[in-house]
Amino acid sequence: MKSSTKLKISLILSALLLSSLLIFSNTSNAAANVVTTEEDLVNAINEAGEGMRVIMLDDDITLTKNVSISKNIFIEGDGHTITASEQWQQEVAAGIKTGDQSLITVTKEGMLNLENVVLTNAPKYGVQAFEGTVALMDVTIKDCKYGGVLVNGGTVIIDNLHLGYNGTGANNGIEIDRGSSTMDPRLIMDSKLTSTEKENVIRAATNSNLKEFELINTDTAEDSIFVSNGKIILADEDGNIISESAIGEGITYNVTYNPGATERVLLTIVANNTKVDVALNKGTSITSEFVEGYVTLAEGDTIDGFFKDKEYSEAFDFKTVVNEDTTIYVQITSTGIENDNTQQPQEIPEKTPEKDSTPDTGLVDVALVASVVAMVSVAGIVAVKKYSK
Fold first, then answer.
1. What pLDDT digit, counting tens, does each position of 43-62 carry?
2. Residue 70 — φ and ψ, nearest 5°?
3. Which pTM was predicted?
4. CA–CA separation, 233 and 205 (whole Å)
5. Which residues contact 292 (CB under 8 A, 6 or more apart)?
6. What SS3 class is residue 387?
7. Residue 124 pLDDT > 90, yes or no?
8. CA 181 vs CA 71, 188, 211, 361, 366: distances in Å
């Protein structure tokens, strides 16, 4: 990373810390508003003034329509579930209700801390950040018809999120999009993301208004999100690849590591028509024994060498450190069926889930102002996250 980029990130973090202190002055004495019904929840949000409104669920809540948030809200779920009513789901399926049918949508200038709650059975998405900011802390999202999370020109912070199956026809965990927004979406990895699925855990929308997005890894991130070979890669702290999703043509991206965050590169090991991807910390030294650990040999097979090319003409030098995406080709001699080691693994084309419509905000294009609002939004969420722990 260039020194100028690191300086820019440090200045941004300093500004966010100052904003966080201002948020604390308005929230430290806030009393939790306990709710048990949809009406209680909506009223608590509507009655929120300046500063942060703290809302605690005292029961599972069934929603009959989308909940829209444009204020600073902290929802402590206490392990409860927010779900959509059967009638609401039927009305959306029948085309009676259209538009934004996410369980919760955070719009411009809105900031939502969502903690210790399950979102399920949404007619479309579990939660949507439409130019607003959402932090997901100890949250589970599953069985939503379009997808789990929609980063729609807003900011989503992952601080221990678990995804089940979400989508119709194909899994759609976190969808990065822009819709009718004037802002580019931002996804921040601040801790961990687990998923029961491997397909499209994090994906960039295609056939949409999305032209650019940002992926950020903080210094407390255990899992990592980065881009390699035109794919969004999600990897856990041990280097195991959780998911790979292709980025469509014409979409640009920016991957950022905050100071103290660990940069990742992709190591690809190819042997006998099989391919294994491993996420490595940038600057890691590897050994032949490390690579062998990812190679499956049939009885009687032997490894004859490790190479930088599929023709096995240039040996891989294990004395070098891995500072960029790297592929190692393993030459194997088989005493059984002859293997064609030069054939490359075939990629399976991904399915694209059905798109959601976005709120009609009537916003004009004020990209500069929007970017400043997004920065302050991140500050508020990070501050409240620390306050809640």
1. 999 999 989 999 999 999 99
2. -125, 20
3. 0.80
4. 15
5. 303
6. helix
7. yes
8. 18, 19, 12, 9, 10
